[in-house]
Amino acid sequence: MQKQREGIALLITIMFVMLISVAIGYALKEVNLATKALKEEQNLYQNSMILSDVLSILQSSSALESLADNNSSEELYAFLSSSGFYPIDVGQKKLLISIKSASSKLNINALNDITEPFFRDYFSKKMLNSNYVDVLRSFMSKNQAQNEYNNYTSVFFDAYPNIFREYIASKKHLEKINRLYMREYHDENLKNVDFEKLFCYDSDQNRSVDLNYASADVWELMLGVTPERAETLAAGGGTYKELQDLKLSELESRKLAKFHTSFFEPYLRVSIEVIDEEDSAKMSFEYAIKTKRGYNFVLEF
Fold first, then answer.
1. For the chain, what is the mean pLDDT?
2. What is the CATH number of the domain that holds 56?
3. How far is the C-alpha of 67 from the C-alpha of 72, rounded, in Å?
4. Both ends of the chain: CA-CA distance in Å?
5. With left for phi above 0 and alpha for psi between -120 and 50, is residue 284 left, alpha or beta?
6. Is the domain of 173 the same as that of 196?
7. 28 — pLDDT class (breaks 50, 70, 90)
C-alpha cells in the first residue's frame, strides 16, 4: 500500500511538473510574440520616418523645383543620370536608395480593344498560350465596355470569387494572377516574359510612357519590332524631344500612336531598401515633381 501511495505521489508530481513546464512554455511563447510584435511596430515606425524624410528631401529639392518650372526633358535626364543610386549608413541600418523614371514601363491596364492585338502579338512571340490575354482582360472589368467579358467563364473566379477584378492593381496582384494561370494552363513559357521590365500598374489606363526611358521590352510590345530594334530605340533614350527624333518607319509610327506616350513625364520612382543585422525591408513610392506629391506607397518586410 505504501509503495502504491508513493507511486501515486510520484505520478502527481510528474504531472504537476509537466503542467508547470507547459505553462512556462506558453508564457515564454506569449512573451516572444509580444517582443516580436513590439519590434515590428518599432520597425514600421522607423521605416515610416525614413519614407517621410526622403519625401521631404524631394519636396525641398531646388533641382526638382527647376524641373517643374522648365518642363525640360534634358534636365530630367541629367537629374536621373546623376542621382540613380545612393548607399547611406544610418546607425546600424544601411539604406539603399534608387531614383528612376516612373514612366519607363507600360501600364498593364492599357490593355483594351485597341491595344489587344499588340499584346497578343508580343506574348505569342514569347510562346505563351493565346488565352493569357483573355485571362488578363478578365481582371480588368473597370476598363471594359458594359457586359464585355463579364460572362467570362473561369475557374479562377469559381475558386476565388472575391478576387479583385476591376483592374490589375500591383505587381503582387499580377503574380497571383500568373500563379492561377499556371495552375490552370501549365504554361511554362510564362517565364519568357520579363514582367519587371515590361509593366507598371495604375488604375488610369491613359497613363503615358516616357519614350526617353521606355525599356526595350516596352518598345518591343508597342511596335512589334525585333529585340534588336527595340534595344536600339531604348539606347537612344535621353535624346528624344519629338516624334521625328525616333526615326520610325511609317508602320512603326502608326503602331506607336495606339499607345499613350510622351517625351516628358515628370514622375519619379523611388525605391528604398533598409538593411540591418536582423531585419530588412523594401519600400517604394512614386513622386509627382510638379505637385510634390507621393503616391502608390508600397512597404514589404
1. 83
2. 3.30.1300.30
3. 6
4. 63
5. beta
6. yes
7. very low
Sign of CA dihedral 96, 47, 169, 269: negative
Say if CB 139 and CB 177 are below 8 A apart: yes
Nearest of 233, 265, 209 to residue 77 by alpha carbon: 265
Strands 106-107 vs 199-200: parallel, antiparallel or unpaired? parallel
Determine which helix (DSSP H) or strand (DSSP E) holds 116, and give its type and residue range.
helix 116-125
- What range does the domain containing 285 cover? 37-102+265-300
From 181, 158, 155, select the one nearest 168 (Cα to Cα). 181
Cα–Cα distance, 123 to 258 (Å, whole number): 18
| Contacting residues for 9 by C-beta, under 8 A, at least 6 apart | none
The pTM score is: 0.81
Domain count, the chain: 2
Report pLDDT digits (tens) over 77-98.
Answer: 988 888 766 777 766 778 888 9
Give the C-alpha separation, 137 to 130, whole Å: 12
